[in-house]
Fold this protein.
Amino acid sequence: MTQTPDDRNPAAEPHLRWIGRNAPRVEDGVLLRGGAIFLDDIDAPDALEATFVRSPVAHGLIRAIDMSAARALPGVHGVYAFADLRAILTGDRIPLALPAGGLRFDVDPPCLAIDEVCYVGEPVVLVAATSRRIAEDAAALVVLDIEPLPAVVDPAEGLAEGAPKARLDTPDNLVAHTKVDYGDVEGAFAGAAHVIEAEFRLNKGGGHPMEPRGVLARYDAMEERLTVWNSTQMPHRAKAMLVASLGLSEHQVRVATPEVGGGFGTKAVFHPEELAIPAAAMLLRRPLKWVEDRFESFTASIGERDQIWTVAAAFEADGRLRGIRGRLRYDHGAATPYGIALPFNAATNLIGPYVLPAYRVLIDLCMTNKTPAAPTRGAGRPQGTFVMERLLDRAALDLHIARDEIRRRNMITPAQMPYTIPVKQRDGSMMVYDSGDYPECQRRALEAAGWDDFPERQAQARREGRRIGLGLANYVEATGRGPFESVGISIGPSGKVVVTSGATAQGQGVKTMLAQVVGDVLGLEPASIHVIVGDTSATAAGLGAYASRQAVTAGNAAHAAATLLVKKAREATAALLETSVDDLEIHNGVIQVKGVPGHGRSLTQIARALAGTPGFALPGNLAPGLSASNDFMTSGLSYTNGCHLAEVEVDPDTGGVKLNRYVVVHDCGRMINPMMVEGQILGGVVHGIGMTLFEWMRYDSEGQPLTVTFADYLLPTSDVVPRIEIHHLESPTPLNPLGVKGAAESGTIGAPATIVSGVEDALRDLDIRIDKLPITPAELRRLIRAARAAPPSPGSAP
Amino acid sequence: MKAPAFKYHAPRSVAEAVALMGSLDNARVLAGGQSLMPMMNLRVAAPDHLVDLGRIAELARIEADDEGLWIGAMTSQRAVERSDVVAQACPLLAEAIAHVGHQQTRNRGTVGGSLCHLDPGAELPVVASALDAELEIAGPGGLRRLKFHDFAADYLTSTLAADEILVRLRAPRQAAREGSAFLEFNRRPADFAIVSVATRLRLDGAGAIVSAAIAVGGASFKPLRLGEIEAALVGKAPDEATLAQAGEAAAATPCDGDELYPADYRQDLLGTLVRRALTRAALRAGAQTHV
């Protein structure tokens, strides 16, 4: 059962309160009726449809491209290679580079391959035709003459001496080298009572939104305006890329998002097609639409890849951590579309809710001939958390300390908050945990999952021939990344409240979240508030969806803007009623004299008064219009945390793993809408289950992707996902007025460590150690067979 | 991706369908479309003509007689799943059909489509093998009958001629003191099997095995019958040791493998599933011995 600590009864309060309530989502009506307009649903008369000829090899030099047969096919309107688009581009490459200290060089991609192809799926030729089918017929007629080059597939091999280069235009494959380094690491190991060494190879896959990416571009030659509908998480960044790449000014480019069917990071990065389609539409003088198909989604959309961790951890005899050192090698793919956030997140999130006195990890990012890597939900953090939690489980076993106890002994306590870790973040600030009660979070999770009597249940199951295990993991997540998000609110003479924001929506319920916050301040039903997000023509500045940030940034901006709007409404009302501002309050959308219901002005009346009447003064000589805006600037990252427990069942004869039960205790500060928070946690956990047991983007030794359909790349389906129980703590962050923290990725972060802890627990007597993600049944069965064939280790149970 | 252009034909009789298949170049039969349509959309298959059997009512019937069932090739998998006649006369098929894809795909997917597509991970060919099923095939010269094992030819390939269509499947009625079991292992319940096993055991009055059938999928491009293991079981009581021995013997079956599911893993899995399926079949046959 779900417990929500803040289940307020609105009737108990005179003013309609919305923050903290499970308000129905304002998005759902149109979605459930099937009336929502996604990118492919946009009615664009006269639009052509595009497809891409993509590199069939992981690495090669383009010697020639023969497009003549494709151009001759009836129904084809344009076939473009890079040289054909170059005339209207300001440069060869899309200026994607994000500043990152450790980058040795930037590899900005072109919108179509210029002369070198660096991954299977890289777009080379764009074909525009009257239908997608004809475009694909034509694409099959394009002849690519590519001279194959050696491919870099494995990051460890790519970083080795004498490895071939993944790109000929870079000095070597080491695209970035950085580190996290603090404390006396040498001393920590010199004085250690116990040292654990391990190597982990952790795969994480793509975001795989139900709706793949898509772009529809329309260029109005008369107005010289480019309108781009883009299924993106970051329309303002997309606009900036188009302005820079096409040499247009800001007023000429609008990027708008229709309904977006999921993003999970995939749609945060600006991809080459997002420039190629608008550029081709400008050349064609026709609207042009491209909707990514699933094959393209696997080969052309960013995803996460392998992290190879070589680590050692130094412990006191009582299980307290003295230090961790190691190396992280990361498969970065063939370009740098998003800096080095991903492995840096992995390295810093390793620390988790624990006191780690000394830590040094050297991070090497290897260019490979794979689709560029960038964060998907969790953004590297599940892997870092996995490493720490596995080290703790192994130390617990070696030192004969219970798994929960070794965590308790290492945990940062509430008294230590705010807790500073001497690691510099992307924005230059130190890493500071703002709030949270980690020991209590774990205590509640253990209680909810029945930790104490689990050994008894485990023994009983064993007698029945079933092997069950209980896994445990704790984690934190830095949420609410800045620098800002914008919200504007305006009420015109119609009385309709319109909220605009640079936040973007991919299904999370951003509109509901904003409407609830604004409705809370104005005392209005969220459903009565109209929210516009993801449109650069509605909001001048914005950043969008990434880093579990929008409730923190846009939520607080909405709160501040609504508060400002009420202030102005009170000032106007004070002038209209010739009373003092201090005597007025807002009550259910009406500014009224305190305690005198009915004596006041509705927001609609105030909006009409502030709209101005020709020749008459505005009330109180206020500036015209009932509107307010705020750019909420973050002052630091707010840390969400959680504890997961999973009961797993292992069939030792097949290697099959089944999840029987899953418990989450979650703390994301104050919750605006607990139901939507739980939706995020559930989805996050399911992504984490996928990463642990199912999803694996595989390539062969030539860099050919092996998993390009959902028949080969396994997503967790409803029949393999257990019931997930969610409980909440609410430790409000002091970093923003609402006290909220992000919740969008958190669920993913704890799942791999938790499930693997459970699998190892179910196989404890066999002393199985799982060092790779995902766990496949064949690999687990191999480990079990090897363990059974080996002589029993001393001290292990029969 | 979008399928290349093709012509669609909807014959109303078997004869008309056979005539179309005989006269059209590069034509494919469309049954439920649950494999063919994705293959066309991926441009792995590019027929110029699709001959849809969906409007030939006589192909979608389930009929029973004393010896067994006739199941029309266009019978939906869901119809088989919901059929009391099938559950009663052929519990092996009833048990296996629930493993075929999802309910949504079973609504469209057909028995004949799955048999003709012959995916190595598919359930129905393994069941057909274990049942020694016969297939009735229509061609220009009329009807002919074929044992399933003469029908499955190669990877995704049957011995059907270009101008032939599968009409119906003959499944024998389960005998008295016979038990069957279908087991498969996969990552998610609706997936194609990594390894699947269909078994039948018939016991005599004394509880000894009179006949055994063990068909396995996932080991090779087409279902295999483990004839030697079947023969070795005859005359023995289906006790734990005997069935374990059969499992061990099954684990020696040469298997194809790939990177994800190597041959030795499939062999190992085969041993486990054969042992478990035989145990279940023996209990269902009324074995009294402790198994």
